[in-house]
Amino acid sequence: MHTAASNMPTSLRGMTAIVTGGAKGIGLGIARELARHGCRIAIWDMDQAALLEATDEIAALGAEVRASQVNVASQDQVEAAVTQLRASFGRIDVLVNNAGIGGDKLVTKMDLDFWKKVIDVNLTSQFICSKAVIPTMVEQNFGRIVNISSRAWLGNRGQASYSASKGGVVSFTRSLALEFARNGITANAIAPGIVETPLFATLKDELVDGLKKSVPMQRIGQPEDVAQAVRFFAEPASSYITGQLLYVCGGRSLSSPSV
Ligand SMILES: NC(=O)c1ccc[n+]([C@@H]2O[C@H](COP(=O)([O-])OP(=O)(O)OC[C@H]3O[C@@H](n4cnc5c(N)ncnc54)[C@H](O)[C@@H]3O)[C@@H](O)[C@H]2O)c1
């Protein structure tokens, strides 16, 4: 919903939100949450089959949805997707930089290509996507950027590239917040703990039990837990909150500095 006088959003209703990696897992949970609150949704993902399913699911919630097969680490593909989205929805109010990949390898066993790929997909993509939407947000004098980091940014043995990429997300978010604080644009980050995604179905019961016990709340997080936090940052009313990192991890950041 936009006020006639200023064209500024006053609620999520009618706002346009891009969710990268929105075809599955946490991203799909975020797309659902924003759609339920009236946003028009753009899902950018590489997985074409999952994109089609996600599009049907979001449309069934009554939301307008555009799905694009985009590699968020490719500046050309991202810029083309922004042009297309502006042509169909006119505005871009929210960018959720969620797409990411895991990266488990000890430093001594990690080659440079592996390191670079994780940094490219998890961190450089957030720079590429933010840079591509910011001119529109500056024009609107309104924007919400929400970057998905991870509790692992604190450091995990065997996850040097992943942790470094997620630590980079935190610093990138703080810098973005400062650069665009005068343009009505906020940038915040979320650090999920362990969240149940399709990957979980492949894990052995004992491993899942062990993971649950490592969480002070004794449960694995759900995509909806992260999605709630994204919605909070995306709300027009959250206009005085920027450059912040919010843990969504059932207390795990407090009690287990590693893994
Ligand atoms: N699941 C967890 O426990 C957990 C914990 C902390 C942080 N995170 C972070 O949350 C985000 C989502 O993770 P998830 O668990 O839902 O993962 P997921 O693998 O279930 O979903 C990730 C989605 O991103 C897409 N994707 C991957 N690379 C892409 C690229 N280059 N361009 C476009 N799309 C791409 C995939 O196709 C997939 O649909 C990631 O940034 C991840 O690091 C996850």
Bound ligand species: nicotinamide-adenine-dinucleotide
**Which geometry do the CA atoms define?**
globular
Structural class by SSE content: alpha/beta
Query: Major sheet: size, sense and barrel closure?
Result: 7 strands, parallel
Order of adjacent strands in the largest pleated sheet: 3-2-1-4-5-6-7
Query: Secondary-structure element sequence?
Result: EHEHEHEHEHEHHEH
Taking all Cα atoms into account, the compactness measure Rg is 18 Å
Please explain how this structure is put together:
By secondary structure, the chain is an alpha/beta fold. Helices cover 44% and strands 15% of the residues. A seven-stranded parallel β-sheet has the order 3-2-1-4-5-6-7, with helices on both faces. Strand 2, helix 2 and strand 3 form a beta-alpha-beta unit. The longest helix has 29 residues. It is globular, with a radius of gyration of 18 Å. The mean pLDDT is 94. Bound molecules: nicotinamide-adenine-dinucleotide. The site of nicotinamide-adenine-dinucleotide (NAD) has 28 residues, from helix 1 and strand 2. The site of nicotinamide-adenine-dinucleotide has 28 residues, from helix 1 and strand 2.
